[in-house]
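Lab notebook, bench 4. We co-purified these components, and the gel suggests they stay together. Before we commit to crystallization screens, I want a quick structural picture of the whole thing.
Request: model the full complex, all chains together.
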Amino acid sequence: MKRLVSIMLAVLLAVGASAAFAGEAPDEGLLIGVLYKQSGNAYFQAAVEGFQKAADELGFTFIHDGPDDGSSDGQIRIIENYINQGVDAIAVSANDADALVSALQEAKAAGIKVVSWDAPVAAEGRDLDVQPASAKSIALTQLESICESIGGEGQLAIVSAMATAPNQNLWISFIEEALRDDPAYANIEYVGTVYGDDEYTKSYDETLGLINLYPELKGIITPTTAGAPAVAKCVMDEGKSIKVTGLTLASDMAEYIKAGVCDATFLWNPIELGYAASYAAVALIKGEITGAEGETFDVPGVGVLTIEQSTAVNDEGELAPTDGTISYLNKLNSFTVETVDEWVDIL
Amino acid sequence: MGKQAARALKGLFRWETMLLAVLVLMCAVFDRRDAARQAAGLSKKDVFNLAVVVKGLRPYMLYGFMTLGVMLILAMGDIDISVGASAALSVAVMGVVYQSATVSGLRAESALALALLSCLATGGLCGAANGFLVTRFKELFAMIITLATQLFYRGIAYLLLGGKTLTFKNDVTFDSLKRLYDTVQIGGVSVPVMLIALMAAAAVYAVWIHGTPGGRRIFALGTNAKATFYSGVRTDRVKFGLFTLCGLTSAATGVFFVGATSSSIRADAMMGYEMYAIAAAVLGGFSTSGGKGSVIGVALSLVIFGVMKIGLGTLYGFVDSMVNLSVGVILIISTLLPNLISGAGEAIRLNRRRARANVSYQA
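Here is the predicted assembly.
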């Protein structure tokens, strides 16, 4: 009886297997294995669009996958699969910077180039990291935007995440520096930063406090996706003509962008990120770059990207060089009344 | 006696033979597909051969030790779904112990030994706690108890590590754990250390549970707990012991997992591994109602899952979620079909008997 079961199992397997769909790879040309954090995530599907666009232009083939549980060991399984298939490069958004190092070192030993994008892997495990924007450009993009929204003068405040959040603190320090030194912002009065701890109610209350304390407040920058909706909601509830900008998800902010609370908010563009990562991977495979500091590669429509030394925020809250190299697109995607609807399903 | 032994042997090997047949057939299908793809120029290289498969089995052996523990729990007719969390907590303790031991000036080797011991001790303790609760509160299902401890253990792991990754990839001594994830060359094939260790452990388990009276008590307990109790077996003690052992095997899985993930430790490690382990045990012939199953079947099903995932992933371009879906389908079929068929057989026999009864009545 169980014999019958087994035979049926085998037949089913064979039938299912031969009928299966396949991501076919030609033996000529380059094969790139794209690995993201988790399957079924709209953000990464958008990134895959970028890889597809580059594949069409550069004539490589790519396969893409992510573990359905978003785990590091799931990513390791896929990396080992890619090595077996003989990919020329792996482009990875890592669930854990450290956990993938051994697996990726094994890939590198097999002659495979490794580019990390979106979420980096540790320097030992990669040839190059491709990121959307440097801290400085993230900071200045928001400042320029709010300055334009409020007509270049008036009081400005920042609603940040945790007081200890290293990224936010770094961005704020760049914003403060520009406000202090750049004559373009001479008429803006910076009243200070409050911390919403990335909690909705705390962010809302802190914003309310700001509005009450500074009745003349003109603009708020909120460089945290978690806090931004609360800030915009508070401004809208109070009926003030305060403008808000920040790093936000399109889906969170569509309502406030359409209501005019925000003229524009920002986040990086996953399509462009995947696109640039492809160009980096192909340049590495072809030996046009090695991932060393000072090299450049061209990404059509984005620009010539320079490879720089990686940096990280140290304990003093300053940028310090770390191991590995990185390239920035330095181009943020803006969500405005015209564009926000295209993005609500993705970001 | 000879006949009895022969029958026992036959009974032991039947499902296993079928699993072996499935494995062979699967390999044949995959191999043909590989050849076809190569002939059509679709593959860059030979992606399915013995060397690739044996080496490729590595990540799928990670939950193997856990499976050895879980299958015994299933054999008793219980279940333990806390094993993934026990393993995560064990390695969290291992990381924290190692860190504080090295900070306090202990030599790295001693610190690592201490950390490994505390890892196993934690696993054992987690299992013992499950065993205690299951034997003490019999009105509660093991499923519910281990669901609760699963959340509890995982929670402590988060308390210990926060949301951060504890990494020792630059610590030469600790990073030697990655050798557990290495391969050794045997006849030109890179054989994973883990596969060897696992098969050795499985052999020990096989001798123990199929070959010794103590081991066979486990199956007796799963078939009829009351009868086993009245025949003089201290059933609670056996249960407690097996749950503890299950915790230990989880901790062992944890150590290999740390080796596989570049000596990094996270509180969310091995999420869902209990399900992989239960799946492998069930395909191997263990049933949640207890009393049956064999180690060879489990070893085979671990390999089958591995080969299947490798083949579907590399030869058919299945993405991870599709591979898991396929595994789910196979699992459902393999567990349901025997029941359906025996049900159908029963119905046919009943019909025949009725028909015969009718005939005799008419006569």
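Residues 41 and 346 of chain A are 9 Å apart (CA to CA). Worth comparing against the SEC data before the next meeting. DSSP finds eleven helices and 14 strands in chain A.
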